[in-house]
Design goal:
With 186 residues, this protein is mainly α. The chain is built from 9 helices and no strands. Helix content is 72%, strand content 0%. Helix 4 packs across helix 5. The radius of gyration is 19 Å and the shape is elongated. The model has no long low-confidence stretch (mean pLDDT 92).
């Protein structure tokens, strides 16, 4: 069931995921899908948890010896992951819980763990800044990198062309750090 659902999301997008298709491919009843995952949200959240785990693992492997290089590596790692898993990553941000139920705490914590990967090098680069301010800067930087990549990969009207994303992300990270008063080592 999971392999089928993951494949549908990865190739076609979340909007094309239907319980009936998952059940047919898994040669089981629709009820079996609900028994396994509780509801449709449970199926999607299981895949989204896997996606966040894989993203966090990928970004966690970025070398951390140099904080500035780490931020660049995180941005580039996010670009690579998004390029290879565009629909799965999009599903994470597009999914809305049925009946406006809140997202489970564990998945929110997993996303925050991914955000925290940008927080650590920023703390090292700006040790004198208020920790709450650095946390907000990290979330903003992560969101901006996500937006640049998402628009670029979707080739939206105002997006950075996909072939220029790597270069523009590097320039963006440098510009952000300069604007925050973080000077490059000489």
């Amino acid at each position: 069931m999971l392999d089928t659902a993951r494949r549908i999301i990865a190739t076609k997008g979340l909007i094309f995921l239907k319980v009936r298709d998952v059940a047919e491919a898994a040669e089981c009843s629709i009820g079996s899908v609900y028994n396994e995952f509780g509801d449709f949200d449970g199926l999607i959240l299981t895949i989204n948890r896997e996606t966040v785990s894989r993203l966090t693992e990928r970004l966690g492997a970025v070398p951390s010896a140099d904080a500035r290089a780490q931020l660049h590596g995180l941005a580039q790692g996010y670009l690579e992951f998004a390029s290879q898993n565009a629909n799965l990553l999009r599903s994470l941000f597009e999914h809305r819980m049925e009946n406006d139920k809140p997202f489970p705490e564990d998945i929110l914590n997993m996303v925050m763990e991914a955000f925290a990967l940008m927080h650590k090098p920023l703390v090292r680069l700006m040790p004198e800044r208020d920790p709450a301010e650095v946390a907000l800067i990290a979330r903003t930087l992560f969101s901006a990198v996500h937006g640049i990549i998402s628009l670029g990969l979707e080739e939206r009207m105002v997006a950075v062309p996909p072939e220029k994303l790597r270069q523009q992300l590097a320039q963006f990270v440098d510009a952000q750090l300069a604007g925050l008063g973080v000077r490059e080592k000489r």
